[in-house]
Every structure is written in C-alpha cells, then in structure tokens.
Amino acid sequence: MTNTEKGDFTFYNELARKYPESKVVYGGISGKIRLEFFKTILESLNGYLLDVGCNDYVYRQFWRGDYVGIDIARKVLLCEGYEGVWSDALMLPFKDESFNYVLMSEVLEHLWKRVEALKEVYRVLKHSGEVFGSVPSNPKAKIWTVAYMPELMKWGVKPYFYVHGHLPTWYLKNLADLSGFRMIEAKPIISSEPHTFFRFKKE
Asked: What span, in angstroms and rounded, lies between the C-alpha atoms of 138 and 136?
C-alpha cells in the first residue's frame, strides 16, 4: 500500500467514519438511476467479482456469484455483516487470473496512477475477463484536477485536496490501450449529470 499517498488514506478513512456516502450519492435522482443501471448489469452476470473501491458494498446485493470488496478505508469494510479487504488499488493482494470480473464504480477519477491501477486489474483478471464501471464525464470539466469539497465540513471532515477528474471516451480508450485491455463499450448513463459506463476486456 505504499503507492498511495499517505494523505489519501487519512482522508478516505475519515470520510468513511463521518460521511454517509451511499445515502448522499444514491439518495438523489441521478444516483438512483446509476444504481438501477448497475443492478441490471450485475444481475445478468455470474462468476467471481472483485469490487474495487467497494465502500459499504452497495453493489454486493445484486451479485449472484462469489464476491470480494476492497477499499482503502478500513471503516467501511466492517459493515453489513461482511468484512472486505483493506487494500490499495495499485497493489491488489490477489494471485494472477483470480477473477472473472472487476467492478470500478466512480473509482478511476480518484486515482493518481490510473494506468498502473488498471494494469493490476489486468493481472488479477482471468483470460477474457472484464473490468467495468463508471466515471464522471462532463466534457467541459478537466481530466485531472485537485478537488476540494467544503460541504464535507458539515459532517466534520477536515478539508483535504484530493485527485478528481472527468474522463471522456477518448481518454478511457487510451487508458484501456495503455493497460493492455480492449475497450468494448463506453456509453452515457444519464445526460443531466454526465457519467459514462465503460467496459474493458482482457484478451
């Protein structure tokens, strides 16, 4: 876990303790649409799933096969009667070709080393396995930015500047190519608050 900035660990662990992320993120209209979108996809698949950046396992309820959730925030891993794996996305503690699918919902935009993380995902996926997820994709926003959310202070979260970004389709294609994947799908989920669903395949 040495590859992740120390400040990120501190921030995300404090965030997990104090900020009701699932309630806030999935409580609004756009969040509910995203949740229903992934519900349909997850219920159509089966196998061994790795959920990177799982938070409080909001997607686990829709998966029919074996499931492992990882997050860098320890607090969220000890909820819902299930204990996930405390891990950095850049150093996944799994053997090569362990999983059929990897889910990365609203994760890539928060990573300093996106290609390196995807290469790790590539390593732990079985042949013909897929990684899929979503990213914010407002075309008027920057691919790389350092974000600050003052609204988090009302939950007692200390101010912190963390990496964020809006990732357009051409950029997702580059990430797939650089990490060894083939991008097989990229499409908008909702138009009012742009988010793109992506799917990469290991061949």
From this structure: 6
